[in-house]
Amino acid sequence: MSLLVVGLSHRSAPVSVLERATLPADTQVKLLQDTLAAEPATEAAVLATCNRIELYADVDKFHAGVAELSTLLARHSGVGLDELTPYLYVHYEDRAVHHLFSVACGLDSMVVGEGQILGQIKDSLATAQELHTAGRLLNDLFQQALRVGKRAHSETGIDRAGQSLVTFGLEQLSSGAAVDSWAKGKRALVIGAGSMSSLAAATLARAGVAEVVVANRTLDRAERLAQILAQGDDTDVLARAVPIDSVPRELTRADIAVSCTGATGLVLTADTVATAVEGRTGTPAGLRETAPAGPARGLAPAGAGTEEGCPLDLPAVQGATGFSVMGEAAVAGLDAATLEQHAAWVDNAPGERRDNRRTPEAEAALITALAATAATIGRVPERRRLEPVEATRPAPVLALLDLAMPRDIDAAVHRLLGVRLVDIESLAEASADAPMAADVDQVRRIVSDEVAAFGAAQRAAHITPTVVALRTMAADVVANEIARLDGRLPDLDDKQRGEITQTVRRVVDKLLHAPTVRVKQLAAEPGGAGYADALRTLFDLDQETVAAVSRASQDISTENAENRGRP
Q1: Predicted local distance difference test score (pLDDT) of residue 84
Q2: Mean pLDDT of 418-424
Q3: pLDDT of 283-313, one tens digit each?
Q4: Contact predicate 53/7, CB 8 Å
Q5: Which end of the chain is more exposed for a tag (fewer CB within 10 A), N or C?
Q6: Is 260 an active-site residue?
């Protein structure tokens, strides 16, 4: 076995690179065909999702395989090799098996434990089987990965360690509130009608939204999804389909919008979203003054930065958010001369400004004490960290969830007031600090055990053609000797001849039984690949005979795997 995987994912590459390195279905087909045409590869499969692209191959040369697979990924993804290389990872043989099994269990997902990856692995195998690029190794590998993933979900509580990307995204939109209570009665717009969009629509319907509107470039697919939602036994949601050009109008009615399309450009621009918010509220959607990723920081009180005659560096003062230029936080860290100037400015401040600070006596005493301390110790004491003042912000009137890669919704929407946007990038940040369930350790043990079992099975399978060739040679020897016996003893009756033949075969079988059983056991252990070569050398087995047995066995295995994959 010479399994090699070269790929990139949300763990190795930034979203900006993953957005550009996407592989549409037709490109995946061409990539598989070109990989199989490359010299080092004899089998190939592609696993491409919204946050990973991985190329699996059976190669006969490691270094040549890495170079060829990396070049092919760069060529077909549209990202230059020099730019792509720093983000690529490489796994070989047992490490490659361990990686795919971990992926199948959801351990490598953006949201740990999500089960959607199993369907994507199944689709990848079906594509490779349809194109005949998957042989015995990749058929066995992907089939086993599916079994390992199902075992992890059935035998452990890995599902408790995380949720599907859709559920996790909705939980982020609801800001900690229960999704069912947050979504109940709202109107939802789902853009796209693929598997992820369908999952989002079904999740929202079960959460109790009043209406789901499905928009898609192909209206027939949107209508089918809307019909499925409307006829669902577990919901009573109203569902309808609209063409994709109706999205701006529908956005003015929606409370929640989920977008996951295969578009290469933006589906929702910041201007479109701002117009929709204005259409709902009658007020233009202004820009946030702070970054959306963290909690909203407090803003400096009105008037800060317009204090005439203030000797302080006002931009620096405004950095101490939540404090007036009149307070002690504004003067912490200043030299004694500036403090004295500030004290004089405070003493001469107009009455309305004095109303926003301590009494002149208290302020002057504080500044004098600070100046005296600075003169004594040579510096102003460190600024005390006081709680910032939380600015009042309008509640979001529109919640947007972007699950597409590349993104469907302009990242500039993050800065619009009245809008909350959760996208792949913010989901990655939110899930990075999510607590790992204890079940994750159990899944890791399952993966390790399954990797060892898979490796042993592959090594044992590697020697099987040699053992079969040996037994075939022994059977030929028996047949030839019985034929010679017939020539020497032509008077033997059928019963005598049968007894002699059976006796000779039993002797040969008993002589071969212990060595062949033992060599299979030894070959299944790490480092046991050389036993097949030793067996061929000791018994002078013809290499072409062994190869023919191996090809026949692989053809049968591949056909069986393809039959299992068909509905």
Answers
A1: 92
A2: 89
A3: 666 655 444 443 333 333 333 344 566 666 6
A4: yes
A5: C
A6: no
Q: Would you state the structure tokens that stand for residue 329, as one six-digit string?
A: 């936080």
Could you write out the three-class secondary structure of 162-219?
CCCHHHHHHHHHCCCCCHHHHHCCCEEEEECCCHHHHHHHHHHHHHCCCEEEEEECCH
Residue 120's pLDDT band, with cuts at 50, 70 and 90, is: very high
Number of Cβ within a 10 Å radius of residue 501: 16
Distance CA 244, CA 200 (A): 17
| Residue 558 dihedral angles phi and psi, to the nearest 5° | -65, -45
What number of H helices and E strands is found in the chain?
23, 10
Question: What whole-number distance in Å separates Cα of residue 95 and Cα of residue 73?
Answer: 20
* Coarse DSSP helix, strand, coil percentages of the chain, rounded to the nearest 5 percent: 55, 10, 30
Which pairing describes strands 41-49 and 52-59: parallel, antiparallel, or unpaired? antiparallel
Q: What is the DSSP letter of 287?
A: B
Tokens 């928009």 belong to which residue? 215
Among residues of the chain, what percentage have pLDDT more than 70? 71
Extract the tokens encoding 372.
């005296």
Contacts of 516 (CB under 8 A, 6+ apart): 467, 470, 471
pLDDT tens, residue by residue, 83-105: 999 999 999 999 999 999 999 99
